[in-house]
Automatic annotation (TrEMBL):
Protein name per Swiss-Prot or TrEMBL: alpha-L-fucosidase
Lineage: superkingdom: Eukaryota
Domain Alpha-L-fucosidase C-terminal: residue ranges: 364-453
Gene: LOC106182101
GO annotations of cellular component type: lysosome
Length: 457
């Protein structure tokens, strides 16, 4: 009986998708199947860029902490460096992006091995990176760069890479007077949604056709205030990206980790165990900020050991990883970020077989050795053990999870000297003899992937 009911539900979902019948409520919208590309790509790049890139101090929340929270450090920073009458809007003319080369950005993103990118079209400051019709001169065409930063990158990504193009969009704006009036009315009015943030979303989709919408700034009001379900129903039914677009879970104060094609749950979400719904770990290379910080010391940036470990943990538990960088106000990807992205691409070139298109295995991390994370490829029935921590385990590698069969083979991705000898571990598991591989033959740095075929489990 359960099989019949499940089959009927799948038929209803298929008919809804084909006939454009997703209704503007979560019961209907949550039944939409996740477009397969999103689960397959696994690795994306987040880019936080805006007027906050001009002061490039503290974080992308600079304006709020200066004028909203009255942060003492930021007040002193402004007093030391700017005249008393200086406003946040006065930063915008210095957001010139004079060195911005979207083709160069696209090439760096391609070299990173990432398969999707998410650019901040508008952060909580309200400044749009495209010439929005409802931005009242607070956009990159009218102020600062005097160009469509978003559109130029979209063209470069689509012309030069195989990367899926996505956009971040903040629903609310800290100091927009129309929003603040709705807020003062306890969100019983919707003037801001109807005249500003709602039209922006439709404009973004119709003009740039993103394959992913990363919504944010939702937490102060219910999804009914934001008209979220109406927008998403249009997105799924009638938009130019209806068959491929994916959305996250930030559409209202009660939607986080409950509704959407995939869940983000919280910033830098990394649960360390398998989840029952597709999720994403949106995290930062700069440990303290999403936007560029001029004063960040090297110790504030993730090392490649930390980054590859986070990738392994995330993918093993069924998530995608969205790795954030912060471009500069003059339009550059800073060398520290470029280096990390290119190094990530080098690592993925060797170990991508264990990442792209993979599925969670029966075990996520190993039961005997700390820092070993597993993935699985159904097409080849292969299991992958990603050994993290930056130290290659020469000698005996004891793993508790894999159960070898007589036909099992163990190899190291990127190394031509295999397969490796191993012994069945009497209490269970496997003991691999890892030879002392010369540095010149090491396939990669930072983390290494052992591949198992024909395991008994």
């Amino acid at each position: 009986m359960k099989v019949v009911i499940r089959a009927l539900c799948l038929c209803v979902c298929f008919l809804q998708q084909c006939l454009g019948q997703y209704q503007p409520n979560w019961d209907s919208l949550d039944k939409r199947p996740l477009p397969s590309w999103y689960d397959e790509v696994k690795v994306g790049i987040f880019m936080h860029w805006g007027v906050f890139s001009v002061p490039s101090y503290h974080s992308e929340w600079f304006w709020w902490y200066w004028k909203g929270a009255k942060d003492t450090d930021l007040i002193k920073f402004m007093q030391r460096n700017y005249p008393p009458e200086f406003t946040y809007a006065d930063f915008a003319p210095s957001f010139k992006a004079e060195f911005y080369d979207p083709n160069q950005w696209a090439d760096i993103l391609q070299a990173s091995g990432a398969k999707y990118v998410v650019l901040t079209s508008k952060h909580h400051e309200g400044f749009t990176l495209w010439p929005s019709k409802v931005s009242w001169n607070w956009n990159a065409m009218d102020v600062g760069p005097k160009r469509d930063l978003l559109g130029d990158l979209a063209v470069a990504i689509r012309n030069r890479t195989d990367i899926h193009f996505g956009l971040y969009h903040s629903l609310f704006e800290w100091f927009n007077p129309i929003y603040l009036k709705d807020k003062a009315n306890k969100f019983t009015t919707q003037d801001f949604v109807k005249t500003k943030t709602g039209p922006e979303l439709y404009e973004l989709v119709n003009k740039y056709q993103p394959e992913l919408i990363w919504s944010d700034g939702e937490w102060e009001a219910e999804d009914t205030y934001w008209n979220s379900t109406n927008f998403i129903a249009w997105l799924y039914n009638d938009s130019p990206v209806k068959n491929k677009v994916v959305v996250n879970d930030r559409w209202g104060s009660r939607t986080l980790c409950k509704h959407g094609d995939y869940y983000t749950c919280q910033d830098r979400y990394n649960p360390g165990k398998l989840q029952n719904h597709k999720w994403e770990n949106a995290m930062t290379i700069d440990k303290l900020s999403w936007g560029y910080r001029r004063n960040a010391p090297l110790s504030d940036y993730l090392t490649m050991v930390e980054l590859t470990t986070t990738i392994a943990e995330t993918i093993s538990c069924g998530g995608n990883i969205l790795v954030n960088i912060g471009p500069t106000a003059d339009g550059r990807i800073p060398p520290i970020f470029e280096e990390r992205l290119r190094q990530m691409g080098q690592w993925l070139k060797v170990n991508g077989e264990a990442i792209y298109g993979s599925k969670p295995w029966a075990f996520q991390n190993d039961t005997a050795t700390h820092g070993v994370w597993y993935t699985y490829q159904k097409a080849t029935d292969s299991v992958y053990a990603i050994v993290t921590g930056g130290k290659m385990p020469f000698g005996k590698l004891m793993l508790g999870a894999p159960n070898p069969s007589p036909g099992t083979q163990v190899t190291l991705l990127g190394y031509t000297g295999g397969p490796f000898r191993f012994d069945r571990n009497p209490p269970g598991g496997i003991a691999i003899d890892v030879p002392a591989i010369p540095a010149s033959q090491m396939p990669c740095d930072w983390a290494w992937t052992f591949k198992f075929t024909q395991l008994a489990n």
